[in-house]
Write a structure and sequence with these properties.
The structure is a single chain. The N terminus is likely disordered. The longest helix is centred in the middle third of the chain and has 21 residues. Helix 3 crosses helix 4, helix 10 runs parallel beside helix 14 and helix 14 packs antiparallel against helix 15. A hairpin with a 2-residue loop joins strand 9 and strand 10. The chain is built from 17 helices and 12 strands.
Amino acid sequence: MSAAPERAGPVLVMGAGSIGCFLGGALAAAGLPVVFVGRPRVLEALAAQGLVVSDLDQRRQDLTPASLQLHEQVPSGLKPSITLLCVKSGATAEAAASLGKTLPAGSVVVSMQNGVGNVERARAAAPQLQWRAGMVPFNVAELGPGHFHRGTGGALYAEQDAALVALQPAFAAFGLKLKLLPDLRPLQWGKLLINLNNPVNALSGRPLRAELLERGYRRCFAALQTEALAVLKQAGIAIAPVTPVPPERFAALLKLPTPLFRLLAARMLKIDAKARSSMADDLGLGRSTEIEALCGEVVRLAERHGTKAPLNARMRELVLGWPERKLPYEPRELLKALGL
């Protein structure tokens, strides 16, 4: 791959998990210096085996351990050209405060996280930094220690900023298009609607494609999405589609019989067989999930506007109750648990 132009400082990845390692690995593969900050479990694997990034289009890049800059904390005196915030939503405030203490005032930080409120939480914790919203629409799975695989398609999005323009050629070198927009909020809500499948996938115990080919699971996903759409409509929030099917028609597509769904959703089903939601990974490893940034966000929005979202509230309960269960839900069982 061709090297990207030299830049003033390294890219800092704050949160070397699945998304952080994939994005940072793609930039490093294009020749940019990247500093990874993460937890010991991931860093130890990277230090021992290196970093592998791959995707459903058969791209693969192997980065040696010696080529990686790995840290548990942001190095003192670091002046990154840009920072990608990739921690889980629940860790946003803590990570932002840490960045605020370490980075020079005015440093640009882009939230590449799930959910719609992370930039506001980060800005409140570190107002001296320049915060920008970003969005990663595709799925990244950790296939093994140090190996992160993009199993679905889609372009990256972020708010317009000159520092991000400089990243576009590097991402493009790994087949990733970075689109810059003046306002990301409608897209963030559109992605949240799609991400309501994350808890369904996690509780199913199946890869994404296999789960989506089960009508019972799709009915659960459709019900969560329909409820969320009603809440968003009552709140007067605009939604931008992140799939070829508009949000208002997506739930109807999900509820079709599987043979018809397979035919009409062929593009949606272009998913690597290995792909699964990050929430599934979190449940499997006994980590906290982003359920509060997904179903929880819908529930809180409903409460602010004097209504309720009982299906999303129930799904939140099921995910939070997983440590006691630890057994996948079959389609009929999950439908029953949601009262469908």
